[in-house]
Amino acid sequence: MLDKSTTPILKVQNLKMYFPIYKGIMRRHVGNVMAVDDISFEINPGETLGLVGESGCGKSSAGRAILRLYDITGGSIQLEGIEISTMKGDALRRLRPEMQMIFQDPQASLNPRMTVGAIIAEPLNEHKNLTKAETQARVNELMDAVGLSRDFTKRFPHEFSGGQRQRIGIARALALNPKFIVCDEPIAALDVSIQAQVVNLLEELQERLGLTYLFISHDLSMVRHIADRVAVMYLGKIVELAGRDQLYDSPQHPYTQALLSAVPEPDPSVESTRQRILLEGDVPSPANPPKGCNFSTRCPRVMDICKIDVPEFKQLTDGRYVACHLME
């Protein structure tokens, strides 16, 4: 196994990503969609942090904000000790090779008018001063790394299956030898039979190249397979952050407990005795979250204080972090 250093490669503190809401002819600012609302975590070199939660909870917005694809509203993002939250222009561009992204939909993220070879070579042309022969050699090396034939470089994205297109996206992300990669639901658009192949490829590349992943997904079973630690998001906030086995074996936050109760068990005898926790009501709007705890409107164990005070995201005696008044 890869040696995982204790000095974080990524440190996120109090990150906020709000999208403004405008109304009327005068485009008056009337509020904000609080997609990411004050989250903090660290990722160590060689580690995979899984970021899970239901659709619309802010997972993808968090991933894109961390890579500075969005201008953030507030907070701190440090990549290898360098503060990147306020970087712009050339300074940010120089750091791009260090951090890359694998997108959710490989069909939408690949230019249909470019050949596979041109797609993979594009980051090299943008950031490196290589000769044509050196660029082609690097493209061939990347095609080998993701398990695609070198003969495919002259083909176009529409000629490939979903799994093959995602491998092209992975090759493009690896082109500049990044240290940190955000995997934004990289298997969500793929057939179940192909998902395991792509996840195994990501694990193999991580082991070989020393990569660090933020793996965003709503598939709790796959996250259990790939992640070292797991952060659970609900309505823009992280409600629980713990080691993988710790979280899956003994979830502490009521929302984490409800999420994991929905994961089917392959063993029929265990599945027949599994107790589902059914949450009532809908997820509130991130433009108008509830007062106090965001989960208070659906929590089966809600208390009066939950509807008044925002729970502190704090560390428990077993090392995990939880934001819940029940822990006090």
Provide a descriptive summary of the structure in words.
The chain is of the alpha/beta class and about 325 residues long. The chain is about 30% helix and about 25% strand. It contains eleven helices and twelve strands. The strands form two sheets. It has an eight-stranded mixed β-sheet, with helices on both faces. Strands 2-1-4-5 form a four-stranded antiparallel β-sheet. α4 crosses α5 and α4 (about 115-125) runs parallel beside α6 (about 160-175). The longest helix is centred in the middle third of the chain and has 18 residues, at about 190-210.
User: What's the main sheet like?
Assistant: 8 strands, mixed
C-alpha-based Rg, rounded? 21 Å
Average pLDDT metric: 90
Report the total helices. Answer: 11
State the total count of DSSP E strands. Answer: 12
- Strand arrangement in the largest pleated sheet: 6-7-8-3-9-10-12-11
Structural class label: alpha/beta
State the separation between the terminal residues, measured CA to CA.
37 Å
Beta-strand content bin = 15-25%
Percentage of residues in helical conformation:
25-40%
Low confidence ranges: none
Shape annotation: globular
| Helix-strand pattern | EEEHEEHEHHHHEHEHEEHHHEE
